[in-house]
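Reopening this one. Same input as before:
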Amino acid sequence: MITEAYRKSCERLDNPPWLYIVTISIPAASSRRSPDSSICPSSACSEMNEIGRIATDPSLLPASVLAQEIAAKRLSPVDVVDALLARIEALEPKLHAFVNVYGPNARLAAEAAHKAIRADHAIGPLHGVPIALKDLIELEGQVTTGGSANWRNRRSVVTATIARRMISAGMIVLGKTHTVEFAFGGWGTNQHMGTPWNPWDATTARTPGGSSSGSGVAVAARMAPWAIGTDTGGSVRLPASYCGLTGLKVTIGRISTHGILPLSTTLDTPGPMARSVVDAALLYNLLQGSDPLDPNTHGIIPADPMPTLTRGVRGLRLGRMPAAEREGVAADMLAAYDRSLDVLAGLGADIVDIALPFRFADCLNAQAIVQAEAYFHTGHLAEDPALQLDGAVRRRVLGGARVSAQDYLATRKLQRDLKQAMYQALDGVDALLTPTTETAAIRLDDVDQDKMPSRFTRFGNLLEMCALALPNGATAVGLPLSLQIVCRGYDEAMALRIGHAYQQATDWHLQAPPT
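Same output, byte for byte:
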């Protein structure tokens, strides 16, 4: 246990908080904090109840702590960037998370941030904090491949709105991370650009989750404190599940997609991938807001999640998924799911049974929207047999050529009907709880590209809802398991509130892979 003296030293900040306690091994379930255990409120180190080791490496700090320490001038952005670049250099040859690392530019930005902050010219609370971007996000003058070897030399002529907002806030871009080609796949594989290595298994290549595979691996392996992913059918939440992260899928229009290479303009949503709900909420708060270059954002009023983040779940009604949906889910995932509901019930939530108007798998078959729109954007590449495309991605894109106008419009009508039926089913319920995936990360050799791991995530995109994935357990061999909190559209603050309450009562989000 952390001593009271150490807790007080953390709270007084007499000691540098980047002497951060990092738990490497996964403790037994019996060692988890109970929901009513005391929690030190101000420092990440106080959340630990087991000491693995004390590290002086700032790359191991979560983003929220980095922001606090940089703003307080106790930690220099230069030291943070140097530590992260050193970690990338050491781990990248095996993990293959990054397409490009902007080392010299990141160091220059860190030096500028250091000088500005020392001169009391900080731009804002995230000034000097580094981040990694999925390689769909345009940065003017930099290469954006979209995960395609055919675009290795494609230089961006615009900067994405979200990138501009982060840079304007003083954040430092470390580099671009790998993605499934054209972001069209959930396992995280990439035939020609390479598949990132899930760091939770040092010996066996396992699914990192996709399509935001590199972002998931980079954050899990502490090569970046947080990253941006995009989610069209689960592509933030799937890598969050497989890599033990917190990932927020926002509602369409919450965050601008201008300057992000599209898969489906109807369904695409960018979002934060982080190590805690607090980190995800901070980044989400910066990124949300209207953008004149993205019509989907017009009329969407920003909603700050921070005032309600710590209100807890007492009195909330949280829906348990129907018993029929347990079929096909791994036993360890179900056990973790059931324990998570018990934790939330122990915190005062009312867990209620609900009847859904459809099976989750039904939404897997509503493919016409994404297929037609993917074909519109990249069909000319898929149609060219001379170009090297991932075989599975080519088949998915070409499937859009067979979608008729009638098919497309019928699916849009189905989308509206299912959304109305789902909202009626959730009347009086604050959130629906499900596992994020059916299993933990599987071996790459076992992947069937004709099947998707998005059974529990796809409906959130189709029905224009928001959802949060967060770690809630581990398999017998230490692979992360994940809980999904699904809320009505534009109720991200509620999903984050529930997730934060869960993370205050558990420590699964504090575990690190054996890298």
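So the earlier flakiness isn't reproducible anymore. For the record, DSSP finds 14 helices and 13 strands in the chain.
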